[in-house]
Amino acid sequence: GKHRVVSTKSMPGTRWIRLLTDQDCRVEICTEKKTILSVDDILALIGDRCDGVIGQLTEDWGEVLFSALRRAGGTAFSNMAVGYNNVDVTAANKYGVAVGNTPGVLTETTAELAASLSLAAARRIVEADQFMRAGLYDGWLPHLFVGNLLKGQTVGVIGAGRIGSAYARMMIEGFKMNLIYYDLYQATRLEKFVTAYGQFLKANGEQPVTWKRAATMEDVLREADVISLHPVLDKTTYHLINTQRLSIMKKEAILINASRGPVIDEAALVEHLKANPMFRVGLDVFEDEPFMKPGLAEQKNAVVVPHIASASKWTREGMATLAALNVLGKIKGYPIWSNPNSVEPFLDENSPPPA
Ligand code: GLV
Ligand code: GLV
């Protein structure tokens, strides 16, 4: 008989469906209208026979779902996301369910969104747009929406893995910023890039860019003008940015988060934004999605977008394809690069993206 594969959401493109149906899988896509499925909704989807599930980062994949999937004969689960803080991998392993994620295909798209937020914050794009639409523009003025020049400033990256490194490179190459980064691993390729680019600029009679690997995260917070957060969310990075750490940042710094909301103590951030009108933030993720902490929406020095960092057509189709391949690979026993038996290969932030 056919393998039953369930996707908790409709996903972009059709390639992912074809890949599965070509290999004797029957694909069932949940038609439930509500945005976030509960554990009970997903239990009903799994039913009493299910070989694999493609799920979403909004879902709580723990003991209850993995034991149910196991009882239904399932062996494979793939998150359609690179982050998997919503997945209890230990529970999955306990029930013999392999877990996959979708790294690589979203690296550049996510970095481009972090860069977009950086520019939007630096040049006050959203405030200025609202001003125009409100009919408030009555003529050019020397003081109107003055922002920050990035050239020659320092970009700080916390977590220089695939996404953090791609973002750093965009900001350095695009805007000739200097780099300071903090990561447990040395970002060798990124360092080499900055050195080579600095030499290129110098040879052209321009100010060279420089890099520094910080000994502590605090060094990045103190020295950088634009800081982007790219860690994995776990116990060690929960509320990484808190009142104390906000207080050591420059008064006119820009903070970007396109990783996971709980990396920032959002209530503390709201207070900081209120007290420091020149401090600006660009947020793609929030502590209690889909909600924002009280006061955040009223802050003009915040640019907020609804968790869209990986939302390019190419990337979303790629994520769906990869998620399908993860599940298919496990069901069929294929050795595929995104080893669906474990998420371990992707725990190394410096592992290269797939060719
Ligand atoms: C999105 O947030 C992802 O982790 O892919
Ligand atoms: C993982 O989060 C990455 O940087 O790709």
TrEMBL record:
The lineage of its organism: Eukaryota, Viridiplantae, Streptophyta, Embryophyta, Tracheophyta. InterPro entries: D-isomer_2-hydroxyacid_DH, D-isomer_2_OHA_DH_cat_dom, D-isomer_DH_CS1, D-isomer_DH_NAD-bd, NAD(P)-bd_dom_sf. It is found in: Peroxisome. Its EC number is 1.1.1.29. One of its GO terms (cellular component) is peroxisome. This is glycerate dehydrogenase. One of its GO terms (molecular function) is glyoxylate reductase (NADPH) activity. It catalyses: (R)-glycerate + NAD(+) = 3-hydroxypyruvate + NADH + H(+). Residues 117-309 form the D-isomer specific 2-hydroxyacid dehydrogenase NAD-binding domain. Its main location: other. One of its GO terms (biological process) is oxidative photosynthetic carbon pathway.
